[in-house]
Amino acid sequence: MFDHLRKLEVPGDAKSWFPVPEIGAQARLLLRPATQQNKQYFNAMLKAVGRSPRLDMRSVEGIEEDRRLDRDLYGKHVLAGWEHILDSDGKDAPFSREAAEEFVQALPAWIFDKVRAHCSAPEKFAGELPDPEQLAKNS
User: Fold this and answer.
1) pTM for this structure?
2) Distance (Å, rounded) from C-alpha 111 to C-alpha 116?
3) N or C: at which end does the chain have fewer Cβ atoms within 10 angstroms?
4) 113 in Cβ contact with 5 (< 8 Å)
């Protein structure tokens, strides 16, 4: 009766484009979710958290440590590609895992936090529900 809701699931290979106009008018990042659907990210995050002392998110230091941990993981497991990202010479930077890791480390914290907010919102990676009128026609 509610099969149509399954379209809202986030598939394991989900990706989403995220515009970053702060660094370029057409700059955008291809991102994977930073949720359990992205098993590589999630397992690496659980492993890293298990090795580190419990973060106190009520302190600046705890928030910065959480961001540092995510910077390490996003370059490896979340950032999947980009368009119109320029290098220091103003040329299109080719995407590679090494470049992704360097890019994530170079992003100002406030921009990186916007990326993190996008990646932690499953709805940004979920499918779309069909039009209610189309559902009625199919039943």
Assistant:
1) 0.80
2) 9
3) N
4) no
The residues, any chain, with a CB within 8 Å of residue 56's CB and separated by 6 or more, are 62
40: tokens are: 């590589």
User: How far is it, in rounded angstroms, from Cα 14 to Cα 117?
Assistant: 16
pLDDT at residue 55 in the model:
58
- Report percent pLDDT > 90 for the chain: 55
Place of tokens 């990676």: 125
Strands 79-83 and 28-31: antiparallel
Q: Could you give the CA distance from residue 20 to residue 41 in angstroms, rounded to a whole number?
A: 22
Neighbours of 78 (CB within 10 A): 24
Q: Could you say which DSSP state residue 18 is in? A: E
Q: Reply yes or no on whether the pLDDT at 52 is more than 70.
A: no
pLDDT mean over 51-67: 70
**Residue 2 has what pLDDT?**
82
Domain map of the chain by residue range? 15-125
